[in-house]
User: Which sequence fits this backbone?
């Protein structure tokens, strides 16, 4: 009989004072996530109230992966794909307008969560029963000087990404 060893969670908190600083933080995380050349997928939950920086974070993350066009908020389409070299894809989900988590089944969302994809999911609490467990959870709150961002690793992959952030970063 085998038993799984629980993942030791790692967490970091940041005070982000400007929109550019939010995109820079996201870029550091994207760079760390993308430096894993094993092509393993990654699921990142982005949670927080309206206007706390989730979409700005997603925009910075996607641009850091190399996308040069306009990063659209998928509020009405639920998901926007961004394709990169070596078969890597980043899917940006915005579930704010989701009436029922089961709608994800109807759009085939399950197919997006594979070993070649990074999935950024805004408003994951709208469909938790229909989503895989996240590797990283980012919580955004308003702070008097900007935004507070708490990042928690929830899997070995997530922990690996966070360790690369702390070892390669001046954050």
Assistant:
């Amino acid at each position: 009989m085998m038993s799984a060893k629980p993942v030791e969670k790692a967490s970091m908190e940041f005070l982000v004072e400007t929109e550019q600083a939010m995109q820079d933080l996201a870029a550091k995380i994207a760079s760390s996530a993308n430096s894993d050349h094993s092509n393993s997928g990654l699921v990142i939950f982005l949670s927080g109230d309206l206007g706390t920086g989730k979409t700005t974070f997603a925009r910075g993350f996607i641009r850091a992966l190399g996308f040069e066009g306009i990063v659209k908020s998928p509020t009405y389409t639920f998901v926007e794909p961004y394709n990169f070299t070596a078969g890597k894809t980043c899917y940006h989900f915005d579930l704010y307008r989701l009436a029922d988590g089961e709608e994800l089944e109807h759009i085939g969302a399950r197919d997006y969560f594979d070993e070649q994809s990074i999935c950024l999911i805004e408003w994951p609490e709208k469909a938790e029963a229909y989503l895989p467990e996240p590797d990283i959870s980012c919580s955004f709150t308003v702070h008097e000087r900007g935004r507070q961002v708490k990042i928690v690793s929830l899997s070995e992959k997530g922990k690996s990404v966070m360790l690369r952030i702390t070892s390669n970063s001046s954050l």
Remarks:
- The chain has one domain: 11-154.
- The domain at 11-154 is CATH 3.40.50.300 (Rossmann fold).
